[in-house]
Amino acid sequence: MSSRALSGIWKRIEIVGDVAIIGIPFNMSPEEVRPFAMDVMRENSKVRAVWGRPRGTEGNFRLSHYVHICGEMRSETLYRENGATFLLDFRKVFFSQTLSYEHRRISSLVRRGETVINMFSGYGPFSILSKIHGAGKVYSMDINPYAYYYTMVNVELNKAYGVLPILGDAFKRIYEVEKADRIICPLPERDEEAFEVAKQRVKGGGESFIHVFAEVKVNKGENPVKEALRKFKGDFARVVRSVKPGTYHVVVDVRV
Ligand SMILES: C[S@@+](CC[C@H](N)C(=O)[O-])C[C@H]1O[C@@H](n2cnc3c(N)ncnc32)[C@H](O)[C@@H]1O
């Protein structure tokens, strides 16, 4: 297949620092994507490596499976987003540029001095941006040791010293820290469980918030936002991504 014929996959490319990631369509092999990947490297002098990503994430750590296509055999990169800098290895920690809008939206809601708990922090984007936007303290939890490591590095890179990385099961560790003004729960697969725990650890009184990432299933013609608001009785919701036909990840802001 010529690289011209592959140009339809341009929209599937993400540039993450000096690495490019190509979403591999269902009907193509990594070999078929290679000529296109070589073009990407030729046309972007800063791109040092190209990786392919078939759809989907797996396991507790929500990791994608990546295939090396060309360039350096390296998946750790410095990534800039919303004015912050993050070191991450997308083969070791969950990474999705689709979340960048939510990183900005939620962190910009943080009020000066707030205590925030991020139950599922990954490499730390919600936590670090919340601190940059004025949070007092951010408890930043993840069960993946690499997420903990990269969050520590990213706290240093951004001098976001009120962020406290915590390694472990957030469903247990959350009881070891003080109650929070705002709790972020970005784990759609366990949305109801996370919401129940967050309700117990949020200060309440009408000025606290839980941001729960919900997984909702709808029939054709039904609105996933309405369904998510019905499930979590929130004030605001928006679709983050479509996972497969009829299944969506929707973020819901709930005032408590
Ligand atoms: C969707 S990812 C988080 C994305 C991240 N907040 C971001 O914006 O890039 C979910 C994260 O939850 C973590 N995780 C899964 N189960 C967990 C648990 N029981 N306790 C803490 N972290 C958990 C995974 O390791 C993964 O990093």
TrEMBL record:
Q: Which domain of life is it from?
A: Archaea
**Keyword set includes Cell membrane:** no
GO CC annotation = cytoplasm
Cite the SAM-dependent methyltransferase TRM5/TYW2-type domain residue spans from the record: 13-256
Task: Name its GO BP terms in alphabetical order.
Answer: tRNA N1-guanine methylation
What single Pfam family name could you report for this chain, choosing any that match?
TRM5-TYW2_MTfase
Q: Which PROSITE patterns match?
A: SAM_MT_TRM5_TYW2
Q: Which UniProt keywords apply?
A: Cytoplasm, Methyltransferase, S-adenosyl-L-methionine, Transferase, tRNA processing
UniProt GO MF annotations: tRNA methyltransferase activity
Q: What protein name applies here?
A: tRNA (Guanine(37)-N1)-methyltransferase Trm5b
Q: Give the organism, scientific name.
A: Sulfuracidifex tepidarius
